[in-house]
Amino acid sequence: MDELFESSDVLNAPFQAFSGDWMVVKPHWHYFTEMVYVVRGTLFAEVGDKKITVNEGDLIIFHPRQIHAFLDYPVKDAQEEKPFFYVIKFDDMILSNTTPGSPKLPKLLENVNNSNRASNLITKEELQYNPVQLFFENCIWETKHREFGYDIKVASMISLIITELMRIWLRNGFEFSTKTTFDQFSTKDFSVLEYIDKHSSENINIEKLASNCGMCYSNFAKQFKSQFGKTCKEYIEFVRICKADTLLLYTNKTLDYISQETGFTDSSHFIRTYKKIKGITPKQRRQKK
């Protein structure tokens, strides 16, 4: 079973910028931040368990470790325009501040990721006074041509985009957190999320995960829920359902096969969990493709 994790070489390639016109991207996650600006058409995104429609002129941001996808919704009109969009992927540490003492953008983005007051979707109306499309186009041009100082210019333009998004989130009620956060679920030798992704079809012992992170079970459970918004058990179920979704949509495998392949005890358990998370049955999901 394919993993959801998408690796990246942040040392040699701390950012990427390119255009795209595809409609479907299977569920995945990564350690870098990704922004997508829709130039024309519509994209149907899924972030965690939220479905988001991204229209022309809108921007959607995917934070590190967020499972996300683009869904293939049926085209209602044969004349409907194929989506076209710009993409920027970057390591948060390339972001810079110019004012001494101002909050650091990488830390602010980390706080945004854990806030329900900061939507992944930024609408065309919210962006109307900011030349975001031009920033994306400049990043793509600079990344392609790589003239002297291109990396400085790209990092500066990404910082400008993130600064504008931060202002929008603040207007919508987001508040800076003074709490110091750190990633206690990932070290150079062990990552909880990567382990769950790789072993999701197996019986995962959560107490062992806690031990590998140097925590007791109760503290691990509390910290995991606080950081990811789900219990560890719920997160494991969600990863399994994301992988099952790919098999439902892109293969003709039976529900019995899919349930066994993705770590469920049987097809009944799979169907119950799928409906709990997605709101529809696996059969209904297949009929929608």
Structure report:
With 289 residues, the protein is α+β, with helices and mostly antiparallel strands. 40% of the residues lie in helices and 15% in strands. It contains ten helices and nine strands. It has helices at 105-113, 132-145, 150-171, 192-199, 206-212, 217-228, 232-250, 255-261, 267-278, 282-288; strands at residues 15-20, 25-28, 33-40, 43-47, 50-54, 59-62, 68-70, 84-90, 121-122. The strands form two sheets. Strands 1-8-3-6-9 form a five-stranded antiparallel beta sheet, covered by helices on one side. It has a four-stranded antiparallel beta sheet with strand order 2-7-4-5, covered by helices on one side. Strand 4 and strand 5 (50-54) form a beta hairpin. The chain starts with 14 loop residues before the first strand and ends with a helix.
Please state the overall shape, judged from the principal axes of the Cα atoms.
globular
Biggest sheet details: 5 strands, antiparallel
How are the strands of the largest sheet arranged?
1-8-3-6-9
Could you report the average pLDDT, rounded to the nearest whole number?
Answer: 90
How far is the N terminus from the C terminus?
21 Å
- Poorly predicted residue ranges: none
Could you tell me the number of beta strands? Answer: 9
Class derived from helix and strand content: alpha+beta
